[in-house]
Amino acid sequence: MPDVFCGNTDKCQMCPKSVENAVFHVFHKQGFHIPVIRSEFNFMLFILKGEILVNSEEYAGTTVKTGEFILQPITAKIEILAMIDTECIYYRFNQPELFCDKRYHHIMNDIPGPLINTPLKIVPALEYFLICTNTYLSEPKICRELLSLKRKELAFILGHYYTDYELASLIHPLSQYTTSFQYFVIQNYKKVKTVEEFAQLGGYSLTTFRRIFDAIFHVPVHEWMTEQRKESILYQLRDDRLSISEICFGHGFESLSNFSNFCKKYFGDSPRNLRKEKSAEIQKILQ
User: Where is each HTH araC/xylS-type domain found (predicted)?
Assistant: First the structure.
């Protein structure tokens, strides 16, 4: 059997070489809304058809239209709203594939990032890549080697068809996260329940971890972890696919009444009323 591909696609989901897919072909109906969340991975958003309103530090109130794409780095806070029916491809990753080490360092050291980020155009070669990729990268798990090859191909297309200045708008946001303490925090905060566990996971003493965390995030660790919990709860309350009970017990609350008290304290209303506000907020934005 060949070392890379066995040819039996029916068994890919059970193959030990399969990994979680990182490429997602998605259709969003007009009004689809992702409230403000903190991204837990780097991702690129390619719009094949339609328009999406993006609000983040990098793209404040920016409409990404048909034939455009953006990159959002890990830890970025982002909100998304489909202005019309939209077809798009999400590509997420931890460490980026580099098109060329020498050119990467040249852009990092000699090419400043744009003062205002704007979406990049999808050139024909990239469009062909996206369409072709969509035909066979649609399963929940895919071959690790295939995904690696497609990542390298994407890196080649970006390096070959885009200027240094255009690539600077992708590279500079990534550089400040991928090797940082922030990256460790965002990748691991859901794995722990206490500050002590967090420090131990990173191999820090409790005092050192708190000192570094405060210097970078400018807020105590416990307070920051509480804020992440609040953001996650509010996000899930606006997702109709999850019941209130699932959200409640999934976040460690002992009862629905405790969960309701938490929501009233931090959000000013009950979980059910917060969920009802979703459609009204979206309609107001679309007007």
Answer: 179-277
From 141, 175, 209, the end of a domain falls on 175
Tokens (6 digits) for 158: 């970006």
Radius of gyration for the alpha carbons in the chain, expressed in angstroms and rounded: 21
**Looking at the domain assignment, is residue 1 inside a domain?**
no
Label residue 243 exposed, middle or buried (CB < 10 Å: 0-12, 13-18, 19+). exposed
The answer to whether the CB of 66 falls within 8 A of the CB of 48 is yes
Query: What amino acid is encoded at 129 in this protein?
Result: F
Residue 66 lies in a domain: yes
- Same-domain status, 213 and 108: no
Per DSSP, the three-state class of 81 is: strand
Helices (H) and strands (E) in the chain — how many of each?
11, 11
DSSP for 146-157, written as a single string: HHHHHHHHHHHH
Predicted confidence pLDDT, tens digits, the chain (287 residues): 344 445 555 555 566 667 677 888 899 999 999 888 877 778 999 999 999 999 998 899 999 999 999 999 877 789 999 999 999 999 988 777 777 778 888 998 899 888 888 999 999 999 999 988 877 777 777 788 888 888 899 999 999 999 999 999 888 887 766 556 877 888 788 778 789 999 898 888 888 888 888 877 888 999 998 888 888 888 888 777 788 998 888 887 888 999 999 999 888 888 888 887 765 565 555 55
Eight-class DSSP state of 194: S
State residue 31 phi and psi, 5-degree precision: 95, -10
Half-sphere exposure of 268 (CA within 13 A, CB side): 1
Question: Are residues 94 and 114 located together in one domain of the fold?
Answer: yes
